[in-house]
Amino acid sequence: MTAFVLLISLILFLHFRIDCPLKRFLTLYLDSYRGLSKPIWMLSLVILINRIGAMVVPFLSIYMTQALGFTIKETGYVLSFFGLGAVVGSWLGGWLTDKFGYFKVQAVSLFLVVPMYFVLPELKTVESLAAGVFFLSVISETFRPPNSVAIAYYAKPENLTKAFSLNRMAINLGFSIGPALGGILASISYYWLFYGNAAGSLIAGVVFYLYFNNRKSKYQTEEKRSSDVKQNEEGISPYKDKKIMLFSVLCALYAICFFQLLSTLPLFYKEVHHLSEAGIGIILGYSGIFIVVLEMLLVQLADKRMTISQVLVAGALLCGLSFVMLNLNGSILMLYISMSVLCVSEILAMPFMSTVIVKNSVESNRGAYMGLYSLSFSVAHIFSPFLGTLTVEHFGFETLWWVTGIISIVIAVGFYFLMKTMKS
Fold first, then answer.
1. CA proximity to 168, closest of 147, 188, 187, 153
2. Which one, of 34, 274, 291, 326, lies nearest residue 163 by Cα?
3. How far is the CA of 9 from the CAs of 5, 13, 85, 343, in angstroms?
4. Residues 6 or more apart whose Cβ sits within 8 Å of residue 213
């Protein structure tokens, strides 16, 4: 709560020079939500429902070490298969989207993932669980590229970054509720985590299908997009676009650092600070609430006052700082302050990364470009838990946090020079 008050006070000071009445602040806050189309709100509702049910991944490492008795090394091995499946799913999602459209791919992904959550609790060995997690990830991550393409189609051009921000805010609102609920359910039985995920995906699939079936975009239609594909509208493969490839590498490095949130950070809370599953869920839930309250406002201010290059550099540096802070103080308060800084990093970096990808693609290859962007994060799902747990096992958590900080500086420098040559 203290972090919220300090951050809002800082925003007021910088933007209004202290003398502005509360009314202007509230107007600015509400303006950050205006101008978004109804389909954008519905896409965010679908992802919100889906993420509320997303209880498995944040607790997967704890489930494997506590319930199944896996070692940290075996846990990292299984989590890397989640990343490997995400790589396949991201590429497949982009390819299928350009071929069949965003609606069919999203609907199939949401419904097909449901039975997987009933299979996973029955897998007890390292090998079988790794295989199960792989197929779960392939199906679930196929959803991401068409979801991003749908946002680009339904958003007004001038509100593109804001539309991506709303989508991310919905993800984090779900993430604030899901892990908190998941922590409670895990204290009863880990099985309920999987069943909760299944219910969330099923409900999200139903809502998505009922609203978007046969719905056309005011700004773009599936028919026009299909025609553009046939005409090969001057679109090249993203894998031949050197700047986008380098940009994706930097995004992947950022995600490797950031995704310690889902792998080694819960272990750090458990093994170093001896927090319970419910306590871990509360911290993760706090991160979601933080982003829900401040994301749209901070994106609005950043969009008006900073270049995309400046935003991405700041996001990368804050990511590293958030983990380095864990070495500076061992109090519970520092855990929340560190999480707050990591949230600001996510708010600044991720919506603008999506905007860069969209602005550097065309109608006919947008699915492939968003697929590559999703793939960069999926690759991080492989290397982040593997490298993180490997570093912890041999050198400890303190070394991991320092290394993460150094890598973040390298990423920031890369963004600074690359963005000078790209559309933004």
1. 147
2. 34
3. 6, 6, 43, 17
4. 103
Q: Which of 418, 360, 419 is nearest to 236 (CA)?
A: 360
**363 close to 152: Cβ distance less than 8 angstroms:** no
Quick check: helix, strand or coil at residue 220?
Answer: coil
**pTM (two decimals):** 0.71
- Write the burial class of residue 135 (CB in 10 Å: 0-12 exposed, 13-18 middle, 19+ buried): middle
Quick check: 145 and 367 in contact, CB under 8 A?
yes
Per-residue confidence (pLDDT) for residue 18, from 0 to 100: 47
Residue 307 confidence (pLDDT):
87
Amino acid making up residue 261: L
Q: Burial letters for 183-195: b for 16+ Cβ neighbours within 10 Å, e otherwise?
A: bebbeeebbbbbb
Helix axes 38-52, 160-188, angle to 10 degrees: 20
- pLDDT digits 0-9 by tens, 86-121: 788 888 888 888 888 888 899 999 999 899 989 988
Q: Report helix angle 308-324 to 332-359, nearest 10.
A: 150
DSSP 424: -
For the chain, helix (H) and strand (E) counts, in that order, are 19, 0
Q: Give the dihedral sign, CA 29/4/44/147.
A: positive
Instruction: Output the pLDDT for position 221.
Output: 47
Spans of the chain below 50 pLDDT: 14, 18-19, 221-233
CA distance 74 to 61: 10
Counted residue by residue, the chain has a size of 424
pLDDT at position 397 is: 92
Give the single-character DSSP code of 236. Answer: P
User: Are 141 and 379 within 8 A, CB to CB?
Assistant: no
Contact 35, 299 (CB under 8 A): no
